[in-house]
Amino acid sequence: MSDLITDYEVAIIGGGPGGLTAGLYCARATRKTIIFEKYIVGGQIANTDLVDDYPGFESIDGRELAEKMSNHATKFGVEIVADEAVDIWSDGDFKMVKTVSGKEYKVKAVIISTGGSANKLGVDGEERLYGKGVSYCAICDGAFFKDQVLAVVGGGDAALEEGGYLTKYASKVYVIHRRDEFRAAKIVQERALANPKLEMVYDTVVETINGENRVESVTIKNVKTGKVSDLPVGGVFPFIGFTPNSNVTREELKKDSGGYILTSDHMETSVKGIYACGDVRSQLVRQITNAVGDGTTAAVAAEHHIVSIEDKQRVTAN
Fold it and tell me: Which CATH superfamily hosts domain 138-238?
């Protein structure tokens, strides 16, 4: 039988920027708060060599920024545990959270900040050179590739739009697509084809990403002719989809067609008392700054929800 823990008022699933900010604000409101993080505190920024688009830090190592956020949250009393939430459900006015360790937590509000994962190419060199020329975010890392030749992999809106964005910095960007036509919207294609810095490489897949300490080239293969060649590039940006980590609850949370959780402007999901923030939420961009803003809003909304529960309990008691 699972251990039932009732010591906390707010449970936050995921310790990235959104979750840490939510924890900070919940704790500052004197709510006993716990954050479950199954991997590394800080989320994706903890694996980023350099962050230069977070206000107040012209340039900071991602791990250092993650540590600062974590320390700030724990300073106010947030407890961060290395455990994975595997189920969330409602129990009257309360929420139950079960973890992989077998413990069950009874809380008054849950904030889901589980982020998501960029779909990987699954080729040799991709994992080894991540953060060393392999990136899944043009907005985050494009400025680090000034005057370099880059490769974007994919054929949808994201690939062409992000490829266009990279031409702000790169001398040239190859767009490598496995088919002979793109899936992107017509207007996006027209804009990309008119960009002189973009070169389309059709009917081609990436076989390997090469380099010792940095990306130096990609080995590509034409799927129609079978021809294999090396393409010298200083960076590779795969844009073949992003999968939100939104399947953490038995509750039927409303989601968009991509699996992202739909929320109100208060970050509340379709289930009262459950909130979502950051990359797991349906929204326009996935950046540290908007995750932090989401976390703030989710925490304040959760506080209002908890107050309403307490008011209800007082009325019932009288």
Answer: FAD/NAD(P)-binding domain (3.50.50.60)
What's the CA gap between 314 and 311, in Å, rounded? 5
Counting beta carbons within 10 angstroms of the beta carbon of residue 196, is it exposed (0 to 12), middle (13 to 18) or buried (19 or more)? exposed
C-alpha 121/C-alpha 124 separation (Å) is 9
Tokens 């490769």 map to which residue? 151
Q: Where in the chain is the domain with CATH 3.50.50.60?
A: 3-117+242-317, 138-238
The one catalytic residue among 140, 277, 279, 294: 140
Q: Is 26 a catalytic residue?
A: no
Catalytic, out of 141, 277, 279, 294: 141
**CATH code of domain 3-117+242-317:** 3.50.50.60
**What's the predicted TM-score (pTM) here?**
0.78
Per-residue pLDDT of the chain (318 residues; tens, 9 = 90+): 457 999 999 999 999 999 999 999 999 999 999 999 998 899 888 867 678 889 999 999 888 999 999 999 999 999 999 999 999 999 999 999 999 999 999 999 999 999 998 899 999 999 999 999 999 988 889 999 999 999 999 999 889 999 999 999 999 999 999 999 999 989 999 999 999 999 999 999 999 999 999 999 999 999 999 999 999 999 999 999 889 999 999 888 999 999 999 999 999 999 999 999 999 999 988 889 999 999 999 999 999 999 999 998 888 887
Which among 3, 7, 91, 137 is annotated as catalytic? 137
| Catalytic status, residue 141 | yes
Catalytic residue list contains 49: no
Q: At 148, list the tokens.
A: 């370099």
